[in-house]
């Protein structure tokens, strides 16, 4: 068990990286799947909801605190090395070709330069441009990059997918 609520997980190099809500990021050694062991953790300023691992860094969707970039080169000692504030509430992140694509709720899709993980900077955003009934709550709540050419598919809280 983790101390928080596990909202997201990704696996890399024998470790599970768990977005553990108010308990931050947990690093779990899964070398022996029947006996997983928490070996590292880092508290983040917000609530972690999504995590993606690329080239020794964990990119964490941290709720109202935006994107946190965590150096996991030493899995037992993860360290926050960068962060970018976003206007919405982040709960998903995908990384490809030096960019972090952040699902930012009502803030839409935030595009952040991640070519230098410790020097992440905001680049651009796009928001949901749909007329919806007032009882529906539009926003971008998940992001999946599907094609190698960089095509982005955005999930709009079950209203539509582009």
Give descriptors for this structure.
162 residues, mainly beta, Methylamine Dehydrogenase, Chain H, 4-stranded antiparallel beta sheet
Structure description:
This protein starts with 7 loop residues before the first strand and ends in a 7-residue tail after the last strand. The strands form four sheets. The protein has a four-stranded antiparallel sheet with strand order 1-2-3-4, with no helix packed on it. A four-stranded antiparallel sheet has the order 5-6-7-8, with no helix packed on it. It is mainly β and 162 residues long. It is globular and about 40 Å long. The protein has one domain (8-155): Methylamine Dehydrogenase, Chain H (7 Propeller). Helices cover 0% and strands 44% of the residues. The chain has strands spanning 8-12, 15-19, 25-29, 37-42, 50-54, 57-61, 67-71, 79-84, 92-96, 99-103, 109-113, 121-126, 142-145, 152-155. The chain contains no helices and 14 strands. The model is unreliable at 128-138 and 155-162 (pLDDT under 50).
């Amino acid at each position: 068990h983790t101390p928080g609520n596990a909202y997201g997980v990704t696996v890399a190099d024998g470790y599970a990286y768990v977005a553990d809500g108010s308990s931050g990021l947990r690093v779990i050694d899964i070398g022996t799947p029947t006996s997983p062991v928490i070996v590292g953790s880092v508290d983040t300023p917000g609530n972690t909801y999504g995590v993606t691992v690329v080239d020794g860094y964990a990119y964490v969707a941290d709720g109202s605190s935006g994107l946190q970039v965590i150096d996991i080169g030493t899995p037992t000692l993860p360290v926050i090395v960068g962060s970018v504030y976003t206007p919405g509430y982040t709960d998903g992140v995908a990384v490809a070709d030096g960019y972090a694509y952040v699902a930012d709720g009502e803030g839409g899709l935030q595009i952040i330069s991640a070519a230098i993980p410790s020097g992440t900077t905001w680049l651009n955003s796009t928001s949901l441009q749909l007329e919806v009934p007032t009882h529906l709550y539009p926003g971008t709540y998940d992001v999946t990059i599907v094609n190698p050419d960089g095509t982005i598919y955005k999930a709009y809280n079950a209203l539509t997918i582009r």
